[in-house]
């Protein structure tokens, strides 16, 4: 894109800049404990990478007993959280970057 600016005397100057659209989604991973546990404390870690524009933040969602997805962490830069005293018996986590 070229932008031209001029004053009332007719003096002009141009500036050129390029805009890059990052159209490739980041790679994201999640690490949770074993699939079956009797522990009421569930440590979760996650991370990701984006070679074009980097990662700004994560959203972490929780689904309890195949119910509705609930956002439990929003716009966080953290890469770990320990969940305690969760209701239900089956938990599914997803992370979006």
Describe the structure.
It is a single chain. By secondary structure, the protein is mostly beta strands. The chain is built from no helices and eight strands.
Number of helices: 0
Return the average pLDDT rounded to an integer.
87
By DSSP, the count of extended strands is 8
User: Shape from CA axes?
Assistant: rod-shaped
Main sheet characteristics:
3 strands, antiparallel
**Secondary-structure element string:** EEEEEEEE
Strand order, largest beta sheet: 3-4-7
Q: In terms of structural class, how would the helical and strand content be classed? A: mainly beta
Report helical residue fraction. under 10%
Task: Provide the β-strand percentage band.
Answer: over 45%
Please state the CA-atom Rg, rounded to the nearest Å: 23 Å
Distance between the termini: 30 Å
Q: Report low-confidence residues grouped into runs of 5 or more.
A: none
């Amino acid at each position: 894109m070229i932008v031209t600016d001029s004053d009332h005397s007719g003096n002009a100057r141009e500036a050129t800049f390029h805009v890059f659209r990052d159209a490739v989604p980041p790679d994201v991973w999640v690490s949770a404990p074993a699939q079956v546990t009797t522990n009421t404390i569930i440590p979760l870690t996650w991370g990701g990478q984006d070679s074009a524009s980097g990662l700004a933040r994560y959203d972490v969602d929780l689904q309890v007993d195949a119910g509705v997805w609930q956002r439990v962490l929003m716009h966080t830069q953290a890469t770990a959280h320990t969940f305690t005293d969760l209701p239900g018996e089956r938990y599914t986590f997803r992370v979006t970057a």
